[in-house]
Design brief:
Oligomer: single chain
Number of strands: 12
Helix content: 25-40%
Largest sheet: 10 strands, mixed
Length: 369
Amino acid sequence: MNPVLIAARRSPIGEAGGLLRNVEADRLAAPVLRAVLDDAGIERVDDVLLGNVLGPGGNPARVAALRAGLGEATPGMTIDRQCASGLSAITTAASMVSGDEFFLAGGVESPSTAPWRAWRPRNATEPPRFYQRAPFAPSDIGDPDMGPAADLVAAEAGIGRERQDAFAARSHARAVAAQDAGRFDAELVPIGSATSDERPRRGFTPERLARFRPAFTPDGTATAANSCGISDGAAAVLVTSEEQRAKLGVPGLRLIGWQTSGVDPNRLGLGAVPAMRALCEQRTPEVVEFNEAFAGQALACLDAAGLDDELAGPDGGAIALGHPWGASGAVLVVRLFSRMVRQDGPRIGMAALSSGGGLGVATMWERVG
């Protein structure tokens, strides 16, 4: 069975505490799900799979499906592979296609409305201990925060500050150019007053970025300007079989390969490299959407996979657009759909990202129809 995508949409990506600060995860995802179905002219789906990292729990995929009006008979499943959750939801849905099914798959994240998290007090006198993130790996193995780990990966790969700032500046410039040219318009679903991505900055030159100080380690190269932003957002695609696509007579993206991989959790930013290498041994992508968590980390992955970084993020990436964790992998696929299908662009494309704990997911896609 050849799984294929026939529709793809996303919300605007808002900065945490910004335009989408009052929109809970299910309310953020529901209009995106509805827009995907409307684009395809489909009313019935067999399941809804959404990636999500921060909660609020309670199976946001099911709640969003009900809120989108899909009916009580439509199931929902929420997937957590940290930053790779949205892409894993899509590959999981693809693996479920066996006939004439339709699956909605993607991801959603709302750090602005996510609940606070705390460890339980161990006795009556101890207060709860609030924490920012859950463990990604056992502490005796090593479980660094993402920023210091990104500094380590960049240093070991020999990627200096100047190259990172140039990469980040290019991401912003490309995103601003795409906004100005209207290349995001067809994929965006307005959410209240939010009609465009909030983060891209005009005039972010390498010279301006060079003024920022290291953000995570004293001698590090990752800064607030050459790293992604914490963001709210949702994205979804409609997955079906090639046979169903042909019956509908619409173009689409066929999934021709996917891999997951794991590496040392202390170098978590390199998690996608083995998966990317495995796919690149089979096909050479003409366009790449790789999640830009940190400029140095993204460049280290692209270099290690033997990919020209100029191919990556032709309309900007997460450094410019933002990184809504559970949705980011799905955002990459929506961006590929626009570039390859809506714009009748490259024939072969890759979407990949690394995630917490030293994990990675990579996918290869072919334009069909």
